[in-house]
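Troubleshooting: if your tokenizer reports a length mismatch, compare your output against this known-good record of 393 residues.
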Amino acid sequence: MNNNTYNEFIQAAIELANKIDEKRDELVSILCSYESYETAIYEIQHSIKTLRGFSKEFSNIDSLKQYGNISTFFPINMPLYSLVLFAIAPAAFAKKVRVRPPVVVHRLLEEIVKNIELSYYMPNIELYSISRKQFMDECVEYSQVVIFNGRYENVKSLISEFPDKKFIFNGRGINPVIIGKDADIDLAVKKTIEMRIFNSGQDCAGVDVIFVSDNIYEKFVSRLKASVSIISAGNYNQAEIKIGKVQRIEYVRELEAFLADADDDITLRGTVNSESCIVTPHIIERELKAHTGEFVEFFAPIFYILKYENDAELLAMLNSEHYSDYAMYASVFGTSDKINQQIPNTKVLINQIVNDIEIGNEPYGGYGAKANFVYDSNNFKLGPILISSVLAS
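Known-good structure output:
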């Protein structure tokens, strides 16, 4: 890596981390118009830690490959931390990083960028408040790399239109919790709730399904219900609030349709307010054998529980394409080493959730074909992604 370029970027990243730390209270206020206090604190801390960690992360890179333009399709969740991961990290490798945020987050992101004086520290990052088609015509067309956060079907369509680009795709994972017969129930309940309601259930690492052994099922569900029923919901400007607004009305409408179909299996019924877009926790219980098709990605605090009778039944589901294609992480409690080793395409976390281990300076994701990948020269590389490593290769 060119020493001057490296040193300038690292120095700017450190100064930006210090600026975020200095502006912490203002950033909390800005972010809490959009997300919970708990989520705001999480992403501020992770942003600072990641920026300060760039010196170690980038020290392993031999040469700093320079691209002309990189285009980023920005995610809807955690705007500050996403800015660090999907705009600032790539900025070390490009003359220009062009970022298109979803409409719902654009004004907030502009406010964040202004507050932390991003243009001073990273002048090669630019936000684009234009239509998707315009962004494709004016930015993607002239980029060598596209960072895409979103649905698998959408990135596949983009790749077919721009097969000569390098794509870094961050999609969705099912990220199940698996409760085996030997689980510490209190820990399992605590961690399941923590990950399922994080960011009001709108995180890409959210838990889409909870598999529970029939040996421990009644105890687990009983304690889960008791804990879930007292979770606070309301406006994000109150620090104690854990659950607030779902950011897209489309997600609420999709959820209403799903809940109507699942009505007979709802055992703890929350509320869905389409005016405020606040969804309070629901618990849905089914036998594993009753589940068919793909798992639904919930953008709300929905606890979808499947009871399994034996390890063979569980593994059959985990080895189906409905799971393995979207495999990223699995949080396991009280399962055997034998079972853990047979979960396909997955980074298995023992007695932990994704938020316990996620670090912005290390690879993120799993090995599911539709979860995350790097596309380059008609080849797909599956596995956890660290953007700096991908861009340096």
